[in-house]
């Protein structure tokens, strides 16, 4: 709580006795004295104990869903994607630029204006893939200088516009979950990445996809992203035990074999690195299995959270052990409820 660690989103709520308010772990309000705090596992428990929701972090909103003023701005951007938004224009819409900058940095990892530029470049990438000339793509995306467009394009996608026609666009969007915001990335062949936004290795994973596999990363939507958003919501509601979204998982042959075994771990069950190694016919390869497990880019969907230590300990998890414990509790509770209903 004192470190405002967002990896504990959805795992516990902080209730302050002196104010009567409860918050999410990452709330930016002034930290209370520890002796004035009690903790709850669920928001409804806080309400039942007489606490009211914090107006700053809005703990009743799953994973800090975009507030109305951000939603209104995104609607305006969709309506006129070529518009350049100056601070004066934002203020005319009743939006404080600094507040907007902070919100986008927290939830997208970039400022609003950087997101807007990347979005326009993503539209240009789509045009080039469909056969538009580089000149047309540059001017249609609001650039008055071809050299400026080329520089911005290469900086954003790590590829020149001329080579973009042969590259594979990797579209990304932000998803809200009870455990905090996640980022989903998908290309035409399927979902490629699903990770928590605060995962330390996320930047390295995205750079690997760009440099090793030639992806051009841009904001956007496709059918795979729509499917995972819907199915992830059903999973957290305890209504889905298997994912049917199409996956595309570039990697080494050994990594893909490990990931395939991860996908076979039944919902509500756990296994160990050693057990997976034996299934692969490599009983001495527990460490290699652990490394491949750590390179899994599809959290929850390819359930690496179901792999535990041989002694029953949770072991490492890129999203943080509190999230791992939460996911295992969620699945166990759903399995127990199903068994009770079957009696």
Could you please describe the fold and organization of this structure?
- With 343 residues, the chain is of the alpha/beta class.
- The protein has three domains: 6-53, DNA Methylphosphotriester Repair Domain, CATH 3.40.10.10; 64-165, Homeodomain-like (Arc Repressor Mutant, subunit A), CATH 1.10.10; 167-343, Winged helix-like DNA-binding domain superfamily/Winged helix DNA-binding domain (Arc Repressor Mutant, subunit A).
- Helix content is 44%, strand content 13%.
- It is built from 14 helices and ten strands.
- The chain has helices spanning 43-48, 68-79, 87-92, 97-108, 112-129, 134-140, 146-157, 161-164, 202-213, 223-236, 253-263, 273-279, 286-294, 321-342; strands spanning 13-16, 21-23, 37-40, 52-53, 168-175, 182-187, 190-196, 215-219, 271-272, 307-308.
- The strands form three sheets. The protein has a four-stranded mixed beta sheet with strand order 3-1-2-4.
- Strand 5 (168-175) and strand 6 (182-187) form a beta hairpin.
- The longest helix is centred in the last third of the chain and has 22 residues, at 321-342.
- The protein is globular, with a radius of gyration of 22 Å.
- The mean pLDDT is 84.
